[in-house]
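(Protein data)
===
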Amino acid sequence: MSTLAPLRLLREPSNASEGNQSNATVGASGGWCQGLDIPNELFLGLGLLSLVENLLVVAAILKNRNLHSPTYYFICCLAVSDMLVSISNLAEMLFMLLLEHGVLVMRPSIVRHMDSVIDMLICSSVVSSLSFLGVIAVDRYITIFYALRYHSIMTLQRAVVTMVSVWLASTVSSTVLITSFRSNTILLYLISFFLFMLVLMLVLYIHMFALARHHLHSISSQQKPPTAHRGGSLKGAVTLTILLGVFFICWGPFFFHLILIVTCPTNPFCTCFFSYFNLFLILIICNSVIDPLIYAFRSQELRRTLREVVTCSC
């Protein structure tokens, strides 16, 4: 079966596809540099599963008025970003399969334009996913450290402005980068943004859990039960920490792949690592599959609404 070839500019260095073919051949002689032959059906199945799951999350949040809060609106936007990841990968896969089997016959220029459009969609979904993870972390931070002022700080109007700003910035930046800059500039932008969001979220979560530890220590020393609001906030912080951990486990190899493209495009080890790109794509789609399960597992209200949505749709 032919290997899927999505993400033209992210798959491998543009200057390494031909000149370094000998390095790939030498490195592949060891066996482990052969990469993985992942069936296209697996991409299709995981992509469809992710699409359905995230659609259910969005429908549940829109259906239940108790979930109409800035936090759940941000989670809804994260689910939409996950859907975009799945849709873009599915679109790329179907596009490549139709071309390979001769169903679609297009001029090379049109194929390049289509590839650029899908690259823009994928780049935008990556940036928006990272952005909304950061927004959710800031939201949880405000909930814990400014609990009494939360509703005056994070108003619905400010939440809407934040969501619109993230979507606009993600779309515009991705479009400008894909259409106007060289591949290395795009990679450096994605890597820098990833590292910035990583540092921001780590700082916020370390501070939040330092407070949680202090709070639990004070409860145990004073023998006082935790307040419902603070307990719910800390539970939300734990949920979003799980989301963050899953995100970096699933996306980490992909961003490491990008770093290697920039730092060592001709190194035999790096060339071997590039051959596992399809595995990194599977991990990315798995992140979109796992996220809705985390929402449902950690939120009783969302879990109940999801059951209602599934029951009604059946």
Summary: Confidence is low (pLDDT under 50) at residues 1-7, 17-30.
